[in-house]
Every structure is written in structure tokens, then in C-alpha cells.
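Example complex used in Figure S2.
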Amino acid sequence: MPDATGLELLAQDLREADSDAVLDTLFFRDRATLIVDPARVRPTLEWLKGRGYGFLASVHGVDYYPEEPRLGVLYELLDMEKVDRITVKARVHTEKPELESAVPLWGAANVQEREVYDMFGVVFTGHPDLRRILMPDDYEGFPQRRDFPMGGEPVLFTYNEDQVPGWFE
Amino acid sequence: MAVTREPVDDFRIRQLRARDMLRGDLDGPELERHVEEGVLTTTLDKAIDWARGNSLFPLTFGLACCAIEFMTIVSARVDVARFGFEALRASPRQADLLILSGRVSIKMAPIVRRIYDQMLEPKWAIAMGACSSSMGVFNNYAIVPADKFMPIDVHVPGCPPRPEALMHGVLKLRAMIQGHPDQGWRQRYGAVGTEEVVGEKAADAINVFGPGDTEGA
Amino acid sequence: MSTPNGSAYRQREESLTLSHLEPELAAAEGLSTELLTLNMGPHHPATHGVLRLLVTLEGEVVRDVKPIVGYLHTGIEKTCEDKAYWKAIPVIERMDYLAYFFNAMAFCGAVEELLAVEVPKRAQYLRVIHLELNRIMSHLVWLGTSALDLGAISMFWYCFREKETILDLFEFSTGQRMHTRYFQVGGVIEDVPRGWVEKVRGFTADMPNRVNQYAAILDRNEIVLQRLRNTGVVDEETLLDLGITGPLLRASGNPWDLRKAAPYCSYEDFEFKIPVGTVGDNYDRYRVRMAEMVESVRIIDQALDGLPEGPYITEDRKVALPPRHELATSMEALIHHFKLVTEGFRVPPGEVYYPIEGPRGELGCFVRADGSAKPARVHMREPSFIMMPALAEMARDGYIADLIASLGMLDPIIGGVDR
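Predicted assembly (805 residues):
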């Protein structure tokens, strides 16, 4: 992980390259996070890929309910040469949950962005095939949002333990 | 393992039970006992039940973690071949025991039901593990207990059940098959006669999927 | 992409074409070729779980494979938001059901980072021993089931015999064969019983011989060679682009292993090699996993040699339960015990992504804490999910039998794919 000063230097370079991309930097438990404007996510990822972070480890979706903007998408990048990790975070509102897709940069983003769409409803513009991946195709709702009910069924008990012989009989 | 019952030689009790049966008031174990006493099991039926119980063909149907313990049953330490059940069949048309090993998600439930329908009578189902019997560890939007959409004969608890526990469940099923006559709860709950019969295929049907048919995949 | 004409046998096969009939076929009316799309449905003996494949075939050559997943989706990540941190550990374990210690390790590691608790050395060594035993077990099940798919049916029984020995070791130390909830936040839940170390040594003394026996059966077998050599070749750049690490990446020549690159949990104390392949075909993946089993045995031996004395869970009473003998005398211990069992420990707000090297690649856990006793978001970066698109790359332009071999050598666990 870049240390705190390394993160600030990186953010400064990024601000020079693209002035309104970086909203904030966060250094927590030796991990660096760049919080970027959702409209500038794709150029930021491309710039970071050019800086050596060439491996997309993970794309997470997070629901920050009740803080606004509610839906966050985190990209975990890895630099294999220097063994460095950095996180790029973008937060969008539920009313307009659009982000530009990272599929042209990494093929790894394909299924992961589909999962974020399926679970949270974030629409990735430019994704070649944005469909539900884990839930059935005609499912309504976005299950991993915080205001989606947990669901579940009461267990069907038959209440006949007295009549049924035990395993020791 | 058998439940001891008192010999029913009291005429009055039988009379009352027949009256309740006609009224439709008889239910639960009383009904079971009434049906079983009304059926004469012939020696041929007993022999057929003995043979059926000793030659179950399980379907290779592994869903999740319980599938690993199900595979362990087939392996050498807990050997299912001792009992004659080593002929695991991949096609549901050739199998007669469906062991639901693992959690059944809402996307998979219609497929499980379809596979159960494709099995031919007589067929039995074991719900292995906590997830298929009740919801198990996960009580949420994505899972459905197997009792909701198909009839289950034996529930084996555990998460995952030890291979010995699953063996115990299979042997209990075998005892059920060999001990009880062929009428019983499955008849009453309409669980018989659910085979899926494929209708007439079109005369020129070769390609089930056309080149453009899989857009939604 | 796999090349159907990689060996002399295949070249002879290829030479048997209908090309001498082609003029006649072209002249004949109404003959055309079309692509057949076949559904290898979720219930299939060869798909290692409930994976649905839409295979587009031209004759017997695969032109495209589309995996459809989601038939085992359990909503594990959402279930964890409803449970205290220590109660979520058994739920997380059931995700990738052959690498349960790895799932628990990723989650516990993430929570330990958030809490900034220190895991004692003995707990770290015990964790390493269990993790490597689980890696061997996962590779054994892979070998047994993949050999079964290829037709080498007797390998299934041999591998499961070894797997039973490992599960006996797990039952000895943790009480449960699978899904042991042994790893807790701060260490392990209890110390290993007396006699366990000797049993593990008996296993590790024997295991390299068994791996040699498996190699003797499969390594130079004519059928295995022809089915696995030069089939399912994917080059390293495609794998890196798809985000795939683990034995697949190592088989194509890249020695990336998180245990060496970014050591966690005392892995830097041990000396072991990383097996690396050259061509990147199915045979290399098979050899890499076999060699990894031997390396894991070496790690276990070193960990047993160096197993230090000490506490097996962190001394921080706000995170870990106090030992039971303290409950009778200390009021504070009683209060801590009560708070931990009823509510659980509270984690200060923050977000952490904790990656470890699982048997299939980089297994990462993202935990977001919001200050309460329940996690606000848990997301597992599961290598089986990421490696699904690689199947299309591996199977394209190969025969359908190569698709089955590639699916076996890919080693997906559908519980991890669908979570």
C-alpha cells in the first residue's frame, strides 16, 4: 500500500492530470482510498492503470443508507510489480445510479459489474451485457440494498415429537 | 425401531374410527393406522418392497456443501455399496432416490421440481442437511425449503450431516420402503403421479435452440 | 484457445475430413451447416455443482461457451448484515464449501484489521496449519472429481481416502469435519488437544508418498496426456486482464502468490516454493496443483516444528471471550463475557479489504463497519466467480471433451460463484 504521503502525492498528480476527479483521500489502517467524482471514474481508473495499477482485484458495491449519496462502488486495484493496492471509491445517488463501465479497461469488470447491478441497481453505461447474474432474470428489486427486506420463511414444524419414535428406538 | 401399537380388537373403537373416516374427521396417525390396517400386504408385495429397498439408485444431485459429504458416502470409508446403492445414475429417468444435498435457491427450485417430476414411480426424496429441510443457517430471500415444492420422505439434519448420519437416513428410508405397504401419505397428499411426460416432438425437430434463441442468457 | 491439432494423434484425426466429398456436398441442394446451441443444464454430472453452460457447437468443436450462474445464490452477504460479527463467521464459512477455513480467515482478518487487534503467534501458526491442511483437502477433492470427469474413476476413491484423514484431523482439533467455526476474530476458538500434533505429523510423513502414487497413476498416462496436454491454453495477459490469480495464473508462468508477495499470518516465517507452469494448458494446471500439495505439506511440517507456546486468542477481552475459569472470580470478566455473547463487540467505523491466497486464487473480504455490533456490508471477492469467463477462453475452438477437461482443471466451486 502506498503510505500516507505516497497517497497524497498520487492524489496531487491525479489532480494535475484531471482537475475535478478527486474529491477526497482516505488513509485508514495502512490502506489508501481515493474518493472520486462518479462522472470521472473511468478516466481515473485509466490513469491509475497507466501508473502501474494494472490488475483489477475486485469491484464492490456498498449501500451507505442512510447517508447520501447512497450507493458506492469500490474498485480495488493492485500493482503487481510494487505489490501496492489502492481503492477507488465512487458514490452515486439512487435516483441517478449511473457509472461508466470499466469493461474496456479490464475484462475482469464484466461479471463483477453485473453483480453490482443485480444487487444494487447501479447501471454501468457502456457495459456490453448488463443483465442480472445471480438472481432470476425476472426478479424485481435489488436485494442487497439496505432497505430491501431480509425475507425468509418460518420453519414448518409438525409438532409431533411425542408420536414419532426417537432415533434411539 | 418400530412403534408398538396396542392390538385393536375393540369393536367400538373401530366403529367410531370408521364413522370419523366417513365424515372426513380422521386425521394424522389415526388415519395412517386405519389405512394400514385396511390393506393386506401380500407376500409378493413384501418381496417387491424388499427388492426395491435394497436396490435404490440415487441420482447424482449435489448442490452445495452437503454434496461433499454425499460424495463421502460413495467413497470407501462409509461405503454405500455395502447396501447396494452404489449405482448412482445421472439421468433422473433411471434413478429413484433424489438426495437433495444442499441449499435450494429460488432460481434452482423449479429445476429441482422438474427433475423430481422426470423421475418415474416409485421414487423417494431425502432432504439432506438443514438447508433443504428448513432454511438452515440462511433464512433470507434467496432460499426456499424443499417441503414447499416437493414431497420429502426423510429429512436428515446436520450442517453438513456426517456421512454416517446420511447413511442412517438412507437406511431409515430403506426400512420405510420395506416395512410399509405402498399406500400412505404420498397418496393422500397427491404426491403420486407427478411424472413429466414429454409430448410429441415435431417431425423435423433437430435443433431445440435456434441461433438467436439464447439472447437472454 | 486450444488447438485441436496439437499432437500427432490429433493431426491424424484432423486429416480424416470430408474434404474429398466437399465438391459433392457443395453441389447438393439444401445442405448447410449451422451452429447448435446445447444447454448443459444446471443438473449435469460433469459440471461440478449447479453450473449452467450454453455451449455453441459447430460439429464437435466448441465455438462459444456462456456460463449462467446464480443457481446456488444464498444471499450470504446480506445475511451477514443481520448478525453480529462472530455470528457471521459460520455463515461466511459456508460460501466456498471446500475452502471453509480460508473464508473464515479472510473475514476474521478483515475484522481484525478494523479492530486493530493483534493475533498471537501461536494462533497464527495454528491458523497456517489449518489453512494448509484445507488447501491440501481442496486440491484432493479437485483431483478426485476431475479425474472422475476424465474417466480415471479409481482416483476418486484414493483421493477421498486422504481427504477422510484430513477431515479426521479437523474433527480432532475443532470438533467438526466441515465448516468448523474454528477461526474467530483474534485467534482461534480453542487450543489443539494433546495428541493432535503427532497425528498431523503422521499425516505429513505419509502424504508425499501418496502424491507420488497419484502422480504415478496419472502423470504419464496416455489418456491423461492426450486429454490435458495443449488443451485449454490461455495466455498470461488474458488471465491478468480477467483478474484471475491462483493456480491458473501460476500454470501460465506468472509466479504470483500472495503468501510470498504480501505475506499475512506468519507466512514469511516458512520456506516453500511456488510451482509454476510453462505452457498454461490443462496439464500444467494439474501439475501445479499436485506440486502445491507437496509444498503445503512442507509448510505444515515447518509450522509444527516452530509452533510457539502462548495464548491461542487475543488477550483483549473486549474482542475475545475470557477463559472460563476467570468467570468465577472476576466480575469484569463476567461483564465482558455477557456483552460479547449478547451483543458482540463493536467495531469502529471503517472499510477494509483483506485478501488472502485461497486454493483457487485471491480470496478477499471487504468489510464495512459502521460502529455497531453488526457489519454494515460484507463482500467476498471470490476467485471462482472471477474465473468463470476464463472458461470461454479455454474452451473456444476445442472439442467438447476438452471443455469438460478444462472445466475440471479450472476448479470452480459454485458455492463461491453464487454466494
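DSSP finds eight helices and three strands in chain B. Chain B touches chain C through 42 residues (CB under 8 Å).
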